[in-house]
Amino acid sequence: MAVGIFDSGLGGLTVLSAIQERLPELDLVYLADSAHAPYGVRTADDIFDLTTAAVQRLFDAGCDLVILACNTASAAALRRMQEAWVPNDKRVLGVFVPLIEAMTERQWGDNSPPREVEVKHVALFATPATVASRAFQRELAFRAIGVDVEAQACGGVVDAIEDGDFILAEALVRSHVDALKRKMPEPNAAILGCTHYPLMQETFQDALGEGVSVYSQANLVAASLADYLERHPDKLGSGSPAFLTTGDPAKVSSRATQFLRRSIQFTAA
Predict the structure, then answer these.
(1) In the chain, ranges of CATH 3.40.50.1860 domains
(2) Are 16 and 227 in contact (CB under 8 A)?
(3) Would you name the residues annotated as active-site residues?
(4) What's the CATH fold of domain 97-217?
(5) Which of 77, 171, 254, 268 has the greatest count of CB atoms below 10 A from its CB?
């Protein structure tokens, strides 16, 4: 059985790369909905429709477990999908859970009352749709108290990364960090709430300062998946990846190769 990884574009490759490093024997199918990216400026209904169509494509490709390596889809569509759409024999997971587990130092299934955690002032950098959903704040509030979260919608960053314009992306990141600091001058932690943003992690860290702990999701998701697969070893395979896109395969392959610095060949979804 393969594990599906879905993103609206190429940011989820940061998650795929971390999973491959940790679980080289796992068969993976990556789907980039490049024809409709970015999702961060779309409505919740539009995101739900696009996400369910993409996940169904991964189910059809033989994936019983799909990871939404897209914070916008995780924030705007996942709960609705799990409640009314996902078949009983399939699983769809988002990228928020491992992050919140790491920040609160408690397992997702721990339903004890919220308690104080070490982190008090958190900067959240995400797409406009993720910020508007308030999904991160909602899930964090179930598990922690006394945490002040200031969100910054980072318009334009995903587009610049997808276009391969990292000079523009760096300028936008620094501008968004400056805007966040005007609202929260001294955050002690920052969340890169989009799987594209780890590609700019050094810029975020530099703009925020050395004293700010920057949480990136790729390694946390890989660790969470490894823990799951320890309990379900039948899902391991030969380590063969496949890459699908709704966009132009040649263009997407070129961008992906640039991102990961190794040859990646996409085919039409």
Answers:
(1) 2-94+218-268, 97-217
(2) no
(3) 70, 194
(4) Rossmann fold (3.40.50)
(5) 77
